[in-house]
Amino acid sequence: MHESQGPVSFKDVAVDFTQEEWQQLDPVEKTTYRDVMLENYSHLVSVGYDSTKPNVIVKLEQGEEPWVAEGDFPCQSCPGCDLDLACRP
């Protein structure tokens, strides 16, 4: 049996795109991305994920494009960084 490494966060299961990357996706890929991201978030909430709703999920729910600006990716090392905020030390 594997040892637990702690709770799963949204950024563990999320994929982000820059505007340029997003524009290269075809409509079916964009729809699939939206469906998978919303489903992943829903599953996390159903198992007790308790955090502010990530901005990418808010955008997807409102039918907006979810890409992030170049340089706005959250850092991987700061506690509390999530996909809805760029790291601001």
Keywords:
mainly alpha; about 90 residues; KRAB_dom_sf; about 0% strand
Give the helix tally: 4
H/E topology pattern: HHHH
Distance between the termini: 38 Å
For the report, how would you describe the main beta sheet?
none
Give the rounded overall mean pLDDT: 77
Rg is 14 Å
- Unreliable segments of 5+ consecutive residues: 72-89
Structural class computed from helices and strand pairing: mainly alpha
The structural domain count equals 1
**Percent in helix:** 40-55%
What form results from the Cα inertia axes?
elongated
Strand content: under 5%
Let me know the number of strands.
0
Domain KRAB: 8-79
Pfam families: KRAB
Organism: Molossus molossus
Protein name: KRAB domain-containing protein
Describe what you observe in this structure.
This protein has 89 residues and is mainly alpha-helical. The chain has one domain. 40% of the residues lie in helices and 0% in strands. It is built from 4 helices and no strands. It has helices spanning 10-13, 19-23, 27-46, 55-61. The radius of gyration is 14 Å and the shape is elongated. The N and C termini lie far apart (38 Å). The model is unreliable at 72-89 (pLDDT under 50). It holds the Pfam family KRAB. InterPro entries: KRAB (IPR001909), KRAB_dom_sf (IPR036051), Krueppel_C2H2_ZnF (IPR050169). This is KRAB domain-containing protein.
TL;DR of this structure?
By secondary structure, the chain is mostly helical. The protein is built from four helices and no strands. It has one domain (8-89).
